[in-house]
Amino acid sequence: MDTHRLKYFLRIAEEGSITRAATALGIAQPALSRQVRLLEEDLGITLFQRTRRGVVLTEEGERLRASTAAPLRQLELAVQYAGSPLARIERGLLLGVVPTAAGVLAAPLSGGLAAAFPNVHIHLAVADTDDLVQRMLHGAIDLAVINPVPDDRLFFRPLLVEELVLVGGPASGLAPDVPVRFTELATMPLVLPGAPTGIRNTLENTALRLKVTVTARFSTDSPDVAKSLVGAGLAHAVLPLSACDAEVRAGLLRYAPICEPEISHQLGVAATAALEVPREFAAKVGVLLRDEVTRLVKSGRWPARVVPSAAWDPNFAEPQQLRERETR
């Protein structure tokens, strides 16, 4: 099968419009439509349904996207880096990811890195921001996706911003079109992260400004444990939608936006000045990480807002803070 047709199919699914996909790909719309028809004929299925706003995937189309997006991305990266000296690097790469992001990011990022750097052993640590920061400072983690921290020993570049939502069990009555005021959280039993950085810090600072008290009935740094408590009706949780999207779709959990005010948290990639991986390698890892995050957000798999690329500097080996320090 022509992999270009799969690439076209995935771009249309991502854009939700043949017209927008044709513009992005730089080909004529009739030619793109013909490629889709040929792919459907090859497979014997219908991939898209037309709507007033564009196209949506059929059930068969959704299955094809789920099964081909990651392998095709890995193939593209393998071809892209095949002739690069980076593809011959043999070493370990120690990555850290906060628990709320691991479910959506770990697999596609690991697959992309493995395709680009086939001789690199990837070790992925999942822990809260404070734990990952300590590991970076002790050289046990090279790069980490974390919440921002006020630590001048780290170099942090923003990646995305996620809205936080209130999550309840199937009988909670929460609905995505009925926002819950932040002050109402003070009346609810909550399961909150034990770590002070990240979601808990956001909640406590917001509560302080509003002069209300938000109390944790339960504490855990595991999103899976938090979701099990919520699903059992023992508590509500405050999470990014990406951390509970599968359970919401399956009807195991319900959610509602939080308003007055809306609350969010930021994720970015961090490293230290003592980063030991080669400069070019670290820069490429940073670029691949940002590309993967952007792709996940654009496809709808990660409900979030990407921080504009102007704020991104992948050159971890010589970050702005370090350059300023050296010129003093």
Can you lay out the helices and strands and say which pair or pack?
Layout: H1 3-15, H2 18-25, H3 29-43, E1 48-51, E2 54-57, H4 59-81, E3 91-97, H5 99-116, E4 120-126, H6 129-137, E5 143-146, E6 154-168, E7 180-181, E8 190-192, H7 199-210, E9 216-219, H8 223-231, E10 236-240, H9 245-249, E11 254-259, E12 264-272, H10 279-299, E13 305-306, H11 320-326
Helix pairs in contact: 1-2, 1-3, 1-4, 4-5, 5-10
Describe the protein's architecture and organization.
- This protein is an alpha/beta fold and 328 residues long.
- 43% of the residues lie in helices and 22% in strands.
- The protein has 11 helices and 13 strands.
- Strands 3, 4, 5, 6, 7, 8, 9, 10, 11, 12 and 13 form an 11-stranded mixed sheet that branches. A two-stranded antiparallel ribbon has the order 1-2.
- Strand 3 (91-97), helix 5 (99-116) and strand 4 (120-126) form a beta-alpha-beta unit.
- The longest helix has 23 residues, at 59-81.
- 34% of the residues are buried.
- Residues 310-328 have low confidence and may be disordered.
